[in-house]
Amino acid sequence: MPLLYHWRDVNYRSDLGGGIAWHLNQKSKRLHAIDPGESLWAFTRDRENRYVLAAELVVRAKTFNAPGYAYGPYRVWADPVRSRFFCVDGQRAIEPVIRQLSIRPAAVTLGQAFQGPGAVRLITQADHAMLAAASLELALEPRALLPDESALEHALVAASRDHLHVLLPSGPLTTRWERLTRGFDRSRALVDQLRGLYAGRCQVCEWSPKATYGAELCEGHHWLSRGGADDLGNLVLLCPNHHRAVHGCDAVLDFEGGRPVFDFGGGNREVVRLDRHRLAG
User: Fold this and answer.
1) What CATH homologous superfamily does 3-144 map to?
2) pTM, full prediction
3) What are the counts of helices (DSSP H) followed by strands (DSSP E) for the chain?
4) CB 120, CB 30: distance < 8 Å
5) Per-residue DSSP letters for 186-217?
6) Average of pLDDT values for 83-106?
């Protein structure tokens, strides 16, 4: 079933400034009621305090987060090609449409009907059609740009600020650029730390180029481009083949059963065999 999510305006502006993550975490099991291919609609407040549409996330995968994850155990991942983030400024208010949906929010202040576990609500296909009609011709949000992740990781590891300027041009993405530049030196140190922790081995297939060739050929895979923190919990060491496969398949990290697993789609799943550090994903 499609879903409707209240994205609190404070969180929305913070997420937008730091880099939209293209996934959603929740404590409510209701988040996993959606099926791949269905839409998760998000609304928020604009600067005039009106409720407006913020996004339509077309779900491509559902996963579980690591035990104890701060934002809840349930996660959905958006299809970056089919999903949309909307400019909220200058929109027509969406509240009249939401109050006509089958969920019939009764609270005087709309956001109060989406508190706590109720932040995500199930809606019908007819509701989805109404929201889709309301979203026609809405301008897209340029700050939701998702850069080439392989190129971004290369820039981070090489500490190439010039390269990053190309990937994240100034203007609407300035805040995001500044946040990432602060992590350059630390990111390189973290990769070295991870190589030491795993003796240069791939955490998925355990290939050991350092033992065979005497060279550090495994690479750090970051989730920095999707809003993750610059720490070991957001970094995994992969051989070049698995690193390319993760990017090429846009693989997601799943903790169903408590053990980290890369889901490449089509039923192809590979366990992270070496997991001595706590992954947040």
Assistant:
1) ph1033 like domains (3.10.590.10)
2) 0.81
3) 9, 12
4) yes
5) HHHHHHHHHHHHTTT--TTT---HHHHHSS--
6) 94
Q: Write down the pLDDT at residue 116.
A: 83
Q: How do the domains of the chain map onto residue ranges? A: 3-144, 149-271
Contact 44, 55 (CB under 8 A): no
pLDDT at 173 over 70: no
pLDDT at 234: 84
Residue 35 CA to residue 51 CA, distance in Å, equals 26
Q: CA–CA separation, 189 vs 176, rounded Å?
A: 21
- Residue 175's Cβ-side half-sphere holds a number of Cα atoms within 13 Å equal to 14
Lookup result for tokens 């995001």: 176
Exposed, middle or buried by CB within 10 Å (0-12, 13-18, 19+), for 140? exposed
Q: Where are the beta strands (DSSP E) in 7-160?
A: 23-26, 39-45, 51-64, 74-78, 84-85, 120-122
| pLDDT for res 2 | 97
pLDDT tens for 84-93 read: 999 999 999 9
Q: Which amino acid is at 182?
A: R
138/268 Cα distance (integer angstroms): 37
**Tokens found for residue 91:** 């929109």
How far apart are the C-alpha atoms of 212 and 132, rounded to whole Å? 55
- Nearest Cα to 63, choosing from 272, 271, 236, 260? 260
